[in-house]
Amino acid sequence: MSNFMSRLLVGAAYVAVTVAALLTHQMTAAAYIGLIQLFCLYEFYSITLSSKSLKSRVFPLIVGSVLFFITYVYQDSVVNLGHIIWYLIPLLVLYFIYLVFTQSTDWIGDSAKTVMGWLYISLPLAFLLRMGNLVFDEANTDLLPYYGFQILLIFVLIWANDTFAYLVGRQIGKRPLASRLSPKKTIEGFVGGIVFSVGFSILMHRMFPFMERSHFIALALICSVVGTIGDLFESKIKRSLGIKDSGNTLGGHGGFLDRMDSILFASPACFFYLFHFTVM
User: Which residues contact 90 (CB under 8 A, 6 or more apart)?
Assistant: First the structure.
């Protein structure tokens, strides 16, 4: 099987599983995004921590997953910065106790990278999941409403931006966007990604008009700009480590972290935009 066909099949399977998991039920969405969080965190620790043993990653993975779950459940408090201290500090204390009994060649560096993984991966994906619980219909009286399309919308806008930024950049791209981090990214591709992402947002509004069109367009702009920054951020991490991909779980697509880099930055930005400008 050719590399192109392999990438195509893996990409199609990834899209199909994502759509099915998000639209089937809240529990399938929570399980799916929770697993993605776990895989991304595992890949991040695999490429950054000094110790490559699985044992050294187990406790940080557990704490990250607990942080993901608690942030999702109590996200209103996190948004209002009301009770974050009550669950974040105990988790940090537990982790620091764990560090006392671990052996590491870079104790301080590993500690910083572990906490960075929680902030970079666990928290943003919790915001992504909670986006499905935002209510735009005042007539809705469900105790725990869930709208999977609201999460899928972020994926679609990111996919549209990434796909057309690549295609436009490949056809007419001349000026590099960030040559030291990602030589293939161009300013023309960046602009093309924004244009097509906005176009997809307008199409999505016609199909599912659960909020004003201006908010769909705003999400497209956030996903394109902030998502691209997220892509470049992960590229900087990989460049600093001298690696091409975060993993090989998805074959030619790299690892889960390579697929989620844009969403990790765009999700909290989109959530806070919706929370403060449409829901409140």
Answer: none
